[in-house]
Recover the amino acids of this structure.
């Protein structure tokens, strides 16, 4: 059950419904196929019984027809004591003595016929007769005659009936049974009748007398010789043991129909069950194959029909997963969606666009609020009071001979003056001077541990740039890159021009940055939209420089050979841009 529930719970709703529909359709088809197969199987069983019954009935009709003629023939051969004497004399006397006997009888009775002549006349009168056998209980001899050998032959022993349809007639004299007469008829007519009604291959029919004589035997040509031999062996064993037919043993592998007649005939029809099963299987094979093909085509049609729709849903779901991960710039490709999914995709894209705009507006609002807060703080202190106080401290340090302290106070005063200045742009030379003083203060704090070098091409000194574009980058080095346990910390800031492009190169030998973090920062800086993340200084510089110098501006970060970080900023001067 858990595995079935897992199948139905996996994938989109459409896929789950499709799987449920496919399973229901296959189940119903299998049930219908099973019912039809069971009905066909039962019908074939009934047909098999009908075939065996019809085989017995056909044999009975033939038996009835031939019995009437056989009685006429019997009457002609052994109808009275004189005729029986004629035959027994022929069987027991030498031919010369029998001829003398026949001669004497002809003198006594003008209508007397010798036995050989009687047999020949019988074959002429009845063309369907093929064989005649005469046996007497008290005589070891019996008479055998065929249409090919009409004169017949006197033999000793037990008659071996040839292949024909025999009617056994009892010879009586004085109310007692004295012998038997077997009249054989051409079996082709009955064989043809049984072959025509044989819906299934594997039919056999036996007609047996009370004395276990095989009067007629039929085997379908399709019946295997090994199977015929096995069946014949069972029947012969039963007849020899107690003159009964082994019906129970035959019923294990055959449909059987047995009938006993009042005049001591037994008729047995058998039909091989395996042959019936083969016919049933062949008749059901087109149905089963057709059902499999039909179900396969239906499933394929359903799959093709819903595949495109399912793919469109998956694309929408993939886009929503990206949004859930925080990528608000994801958009659903509306060119691959149709109908209501297209309307849904357009609505999702509009919603994401609005969310992005809201985020950007909130971000800009926060920046403005921070700027207003800073201005309010700046306005709380009179800048001139601070400058005058710091200048007094500097002059006092000079008068006391502490020039180094005076330089520190001067650098701090210059930084403070620059920070409280409300101007939004500054000359590039002044920005570098400000940064140099910032580094100088760190050098004073950690003497003999920090070295720095600032250079700028004279032609680039007066370029107007946004304020605080270098300071945050230098500050990042002192926050994250410098190692104060070392004595060889170095920072280089270089500004030069090459092929009309201004290059600002900031290089250090600090702790560096991991490849993963570097790749993440590069991806975010290359993004055209505003994003909120931890590198606020880099992001601030990136956005303001992009706003000032447009597409000519680029910022590149890479690890250098010293193990530190190199920040390479390029842009085109405002007076050089169109």
């Amino acid at each position: 059950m858990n595995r079935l529930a897992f199948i139905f719970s996996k994938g989109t709703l459409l896929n789950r419904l499709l799987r449920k529909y496919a399973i229901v359709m296959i189940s119903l088809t299998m049930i219908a196929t099973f019912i039809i197969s069971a009905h066909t199987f039962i019908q074939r069983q009934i047909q098999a019984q009908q075939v065996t019954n019809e085989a017995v009935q056909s044999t009975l009709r033939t038996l009835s027809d031939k019995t009437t003629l056989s009685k006429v023939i019997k009457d002609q051969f052994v109808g009275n004591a004189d005729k029986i004497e004629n035959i027994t004399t022929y069987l027991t006397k030498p031919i010369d003595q029998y001829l003398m006997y026949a001669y004497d009888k002809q003198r006594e009775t003008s209508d007397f016929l010798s036995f050989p002549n009687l047999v020949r006349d019988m074959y002429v009168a009845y063309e369907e007769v093929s064989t005649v056998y005469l046996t007497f209980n008290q005589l070891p001899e019996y008479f055998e005659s065929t249409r090919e050998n009409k004169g017949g032959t006197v033999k000793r022993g037990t008659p071996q009936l040839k292949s024909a349809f025999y009617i056994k007639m009892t010879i009586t004299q004085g109310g007692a049974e004295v012998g038997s007469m077997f009249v054989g008829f051409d079996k082709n007519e009955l064989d043809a009748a049984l072959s025509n009604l044989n819906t299934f291959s594997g039919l056999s029919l036996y007609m047996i007398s009370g004395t276990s004589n095989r009067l007629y035997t039929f085997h379908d040509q399709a019946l295997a010789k090994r199977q015929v031999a096995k069946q014949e062996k069972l029947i012969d064993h039963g007849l020899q043991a107690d003159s009964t037919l082994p019906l129970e043993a035959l019923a294990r592998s055959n449909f059987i129909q047995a009938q006993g007649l009042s005049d001591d005939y037994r008729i047995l029809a058998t039909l091989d069950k395996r042959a019936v099963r083969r016919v049933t299987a062949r008749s059901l094979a087109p149905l089963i194959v057709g059902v499999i093909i039909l179900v396969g085509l239906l499933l394929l049609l359903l799959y093709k029909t819903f595949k495109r729709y399912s793919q469109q849903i998956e694309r929408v779901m993939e886009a929503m997963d990206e949004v859930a991960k925080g990528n608000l710039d994801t958009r659903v490709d509306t060119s691959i969606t149709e109908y209501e999914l297209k309307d849904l995709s357009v609505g999702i894209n509009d919603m994401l666009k609005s969310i992005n705009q809201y985020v950007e507006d909130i971000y800009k609002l926060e920046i403005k609020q921070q700027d207003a807060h800073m201005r309010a703080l700046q306005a709380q202190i009179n800048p001139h009071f601070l400058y005058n106080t710091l200048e007094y401290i500097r002059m006092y340090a000079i008068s006391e001979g502490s020039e180094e302290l005076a330089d520190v106070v001067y650098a701090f005063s210059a930084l403070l003056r620059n920070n409280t200045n409300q101007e939004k742009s500054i000359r590039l030379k002044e920005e570098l001077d400000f940064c140099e003083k910032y580094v100088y203060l760190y050098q004073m704090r950690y003497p003999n541990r920090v070295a720095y070098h600032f250079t700028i091409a004279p032609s680039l000194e007066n370029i107007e740039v946004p304020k605080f574009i270098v300071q945050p980058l230098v500050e990042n080095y002192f926050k994250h890159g410098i190692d104060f346990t070392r004595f060889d910390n170095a920072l280089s800031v270089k500004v030069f021009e090459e092929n009309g492009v201004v290059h600002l190169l900031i290089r250090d030998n600090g702790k560096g940055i991991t490849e993963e973090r570097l790749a993440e920062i590069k991806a975010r800086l290359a993004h055209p939209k505003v994003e909120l993340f931890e590198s606020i200084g880099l992001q601030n510089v990136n956005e303001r420089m992009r706003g000032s110098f447009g597409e000519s501006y680029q910022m590149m970060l890479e690890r250098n050979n010293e193990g530190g970080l190199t920040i390479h900023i390029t842009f085109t001067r405002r007076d050089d841009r169109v």
About this structure: The chain has 16 helices and 16 strands. The two ends are 72 Å apart (CA to CA). Residues 447-576 form a domain with the Heat Shock Protein 90 fold (CATH 3.30.565.10). The first helix runs from residue 2 to 9.
